[in-house]
């Protein structure tokens, strides 16, 4: 009897997982983009209300990516790839979108060398065949970029984050569970994914010193 109950619960859990996955795919597949952009694959990310869209090009191991996340006009969002062995913010090449007081949206491209990064612009550890762009509409940022997948591998450790701005400067992101779990191993070919903690808390001192220009 115990074996039957275990099998029944396993079947129910599997069914719910597939249903949740199908719902997430349906939610992200209804998104619209400007300038006639379209993407072949998408996934609703597990935290921060974000979604990722991409088209993988096997001929040159690149991916056209759109990252979308809800945020207030006085906040920032980021997406990137960790080129190291572990999923986390430290060791990641990231694209950070925010806007100035006039509503002009810009993208910082930076490598997070540690949990206390310098946030120096143009220091990515991956190739970007088509430079990033970003827009803010409907209470959400969308970052567009084409990346060369490190090591020609379709499986990458992806990270994302969101936080506030303070007087034009990127302020520290919250340390809630959602902000600390914003990492996912993603297969850009099959769409397979798994999540993991990011240990993504960044130095308050360094974030205070960064100004978006």
Automatic annotation (TrEMBL):
Region (Disordered), start-end ranges: 192-213
Signal peptide residue numbers: 1-24
Domain DOMON: 48-163
UniProt biased composition (Basic residues): 201-213
Origin superkingdom: Eukaryota
Name of the featured protein: DOMON domain-containing protein
Entry keyword set: Membrane, Signal, Transport
Chief site of localization: membrane
Pfam families in alphabetical order: DUF568
PROSITE patterns: DOMON (PS50836)
Any GO CC annotation of this UniProt entry: membrane
Cellular compartment(s): Membrane
InterPro entries assigned: AIR12_DOMON, DOMON_domain
CDD domains noted in UniProt: DOMON_CIL1_like (cd09629)
